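In line with agreed milestones, the collection of sequences with tokenised folds has grown. One record among many is set out beneath this paragraph:
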Amino acid sequence: MLAKPHRLKKKKDIQGVFSQGVHAREGAILVKFCVSKEPGPRFGIVVSKKVSRSAVKRNRIRRVISEFLRLTLSGFPQKKDVVVIVLPGKNIAQYNAKEIRESVLSALQKTSLLNL
């Protein structure tokens, strides 16, 4: 789980990323980001009911992405707000954790946001 200073919780902050952010897509993963006034990178993860009706599957996807972001936190630039959106239609609920991490990594590399 991401530490509180690295989470986007306020609706205003998430809407700011949606309205001003640059994005990249890889399969079922869409990454939007923008510059922030807050120190350190902050992340939001969005998994809608359209991805899976089962809350267990949606929360599993959210936990896998959150853990991946926590482990790669040092590779992100400071003062960035990032929202990772899981899109419906690619059957990502059936993916294993490795496939989800690879999709997120690929989308983040397309944005040149992650320096690993």
Notes: The chain has three helices and four strands. The radius of gyration is 13 Å.
